[in-house]
Each structure stands twice: as C-alpha cells, then as structure tokens.
C-alpha cells in the first residue's frame, strides 16, 4: 500500500502537470484564432488560382513546349512527396496521422515499381519518417525558430522543387498535409502539384478566352507563384490544425489530470483514515493490557 507521503507527492506532481496543460491549452486557443483566420483567408485565393491555371493550361497542355511545372516530364517513374507536419508535439495524433498517410502512400507507390523521394517541412515529420524511409530523403526544412510562417518560407521550398524538376530528378510531385476542417477535425490530404491537375470543370463552363499576353507568357509567371501559393496554403492549414489539435489534446490532458487527482485524493483519505483507525486500536489495546 502506498504511504501518505508518496500519495501527497504524487498529488502535487499531477497538480503541477495540470497547471502546465491548462496554460498550454490557453496559449493554443489564443494562437488558433489567428491561424484559423489566416488559413481560411488563403483558401479562396489558392482555389481561384488553381481554376485560372486550369483555364490557361488547357490550351497549351498538349504543346511540346509546355512548361514542366504544368505537364511534368511526361513520365511517371519518380515521385517526390513534400510532407508538411508540425515542428512540435503534444498535439495528439496530428503528426502521426500525416506520417501514417505518407507511409501508406510510399508503400503503394513502391509496390507499383515507382521510385519515391521525400522532402519534409516540419521537424516532427522528418523524425517520424526517417525511422523507415531515411534513404528516400532528399531535403528537410524546419521553421521552428520563426514565430510566424511567411510566404517567403513557402517560396524557399518551392525553389528547391523547381530546381529538382529542371534537373529531371522527379516526374510527379505530391503535397501531403493536414487539411484544416475545424478545431477537432484535420484530414490528411494528398494534393498533386506537378503535373498541375486540370479538371474538366475548371474550364469555366466551356467558355473560351483570349489572353493578352499569350498563355505561355502568363504561365511562365503564374506557375512558380501557384506552386508557392499551394504550399503556403498547406502551411497555414497545418498551423491551424496543429493549434486546434494541441488545444484539444491539452484539454483532454487537463481533464484526465483532474480525474487522477480526485482518485489519488480519495485513496489518500482512505489510507489516512485506516492509519488513524489502526493507531486508535493500538492505543485501546495497550490501555486494556494495563
């Protein structure tokens, strides 16, 4: 049976932990509002950019001089996965879900005979995936020292992707991240970046447009920007999802700590009462013996 001293120490320890989880929950809730606002504000622009790119690319996709950022290399042998995760933990299954989604994707591609390369954005993704796929890594990016993710950070990663594409180091590029739905729901998502997807519905109802300057000139400016915008949207979604998941995880941890404190306090009181009863019995027995 645990002693009263050990129970007191454990109760105080759990109370200290609860204070920490409460503080982390409040901090995550405060940061979530800003991150959620940024993520939701970036989506319409990114989605509209995709539709405009589809309209522009539809007329030049079949051309032999079409940009590689639009049509890729024409092959489907080497796949580059850009995996976006958080820089820190204590956020439930947020990072693990993306890691599992990536692991499933890698295994499926390799089962088809494809070659897979991985770039991670976020320290936790690199730690998780290196356990099994260290040989596939071609790049790691971490922005742990930055208070806020900026567009220039996304541009830094996309510049590396563009260099690899020009060097013929991959054929298809897919972005994997947690898409933010709400505070308690973040969905691991795979979004193909290269070749740029061009759904039929993106042609604005079949209407034809004339562009000035030419489609090729516009695409030369828009394609690199679109790549950075899609990654930037993923980074913002990832940040909002992280704070939402962390807030939920810290709330659950605080509740669990409260329940544990109640159980330990009850156990402490019962142990104390048993000790008092035993001491009284010993005193009474001693008095009767005299």
Automatic annotation (TrEMBL):
<keyword id="KW-0066">ATP synthesis</keyword>
<protein>
    <recommendedName>
        <fullName>ATP synthase gamma chain</fullName>
    </recommendedName>
</protein>
<comment type="similarity">
    <text>Belongs to the ATPase gamma chain family.</text>
</comment>
<keyword id="KW-0139">CF(1)</keyword>
<keyword id="KW-0406">Ion transport</keyword>
<keyword id="KW-0375">Hydrogen ion transport</keyword>
<dbReference type="InterPro" id="IPR000131">
    <property type="entry name" value="ATP_synth_F1_gsu"/>
</dbReference>
<dbReference type="InterPro" id="IPR023632">
    <property type="entry name" value="ATP_synth_F1_gsu_CS"/>
</dbReference>
<keyword id="KW-1003">Cell membrane</keyword>
<comment type="subunit">
    <text>F-type ATPases have 2 components, CF(1) - the catalytic core - and CF(0) - the membrane proton channel. CF(1) has five subunits: alpha(3), beta(3), gamma(1), delta(1), epsilon(1). CF(0) has three main subunits: a, b and c.</text>
</comment>
<keyword id="KW-0472">Membrane</keyword>
<comment type="function">
    <text>Produces ATP from ADP in the presence of a proton gradient across the membrane. The gamma chain is believed to be important in regulating ATPase activity and the flow of protons through the CF(0) complex.</text>
</comment>
<keyword id="KW-0813">Transport</keyword>
<dbReference type="InterPro" id="IPR035968">
    <property type="entry name" value="ATP_synth_F1_ATPase_gsu"/>
</dbReference>
<dbReference type="Pfam" id="PF00231">
    <property type="entry name" value="ATP-synt"/>
</dbReference>
């Amino acid at each position: 049976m645990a002693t009263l001293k050990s129970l007191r120490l454990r109760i105080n320890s759990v109370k200290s932990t609860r204070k920490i989880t409460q503080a982390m929950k409040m901090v995550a809730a405060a940061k979530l509002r800003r991150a959620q606002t940024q993520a939701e504000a970036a989506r319409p622009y990114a989605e509209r950019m995709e539709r405009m790119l589809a309209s522009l690319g539809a007329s030049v996709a079949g051309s032999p001089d079409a940009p590689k950022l639009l049509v890729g290399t024409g092959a489907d042998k080497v796949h580059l996965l850009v995996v976006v995760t958080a820089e820190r933990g204590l956020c439930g299954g947020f990072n693990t879900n993306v890691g599992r989604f990536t692991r499933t994707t890698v295994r499926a591609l390799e089962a088809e005979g494809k070659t897979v390369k991985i770039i991670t954005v976020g320290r936790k993704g690199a730690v998780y995936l290196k356990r099994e796929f260290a040989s596939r890594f071609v790049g790691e990016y971490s922005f742990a020292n930055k208070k806020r993710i900026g567009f220039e950070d996304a541009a830094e990663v996309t510049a590396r992707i563009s260099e690899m594409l020009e060097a013929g180091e991959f054929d298809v590029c897919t972005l994997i991240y947690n898409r933010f739905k709400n505070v308690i729901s973040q969905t691991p998502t795979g979004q193909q970046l290269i070749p740029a997807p061009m759904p039929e519905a993106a042609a604005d109802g079949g209407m034809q447009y004339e562009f000035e300057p030419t489609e090729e000139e516009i695409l030369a400016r828009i394609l690199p920007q679109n790549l950075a915008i899609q990654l930037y949207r993923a980074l913002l979604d990832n940040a909002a999802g992280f704070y939402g998941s962390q807030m939920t995880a810290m709330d659950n941890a605080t509740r669990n700590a409260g329940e544990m404190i109640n159980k330990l306090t009850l156990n402490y009181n019962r142990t104390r009462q048993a000790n008092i009863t035993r001491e009284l019995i010993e005193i009474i027995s001693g008095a009767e013996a005299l």
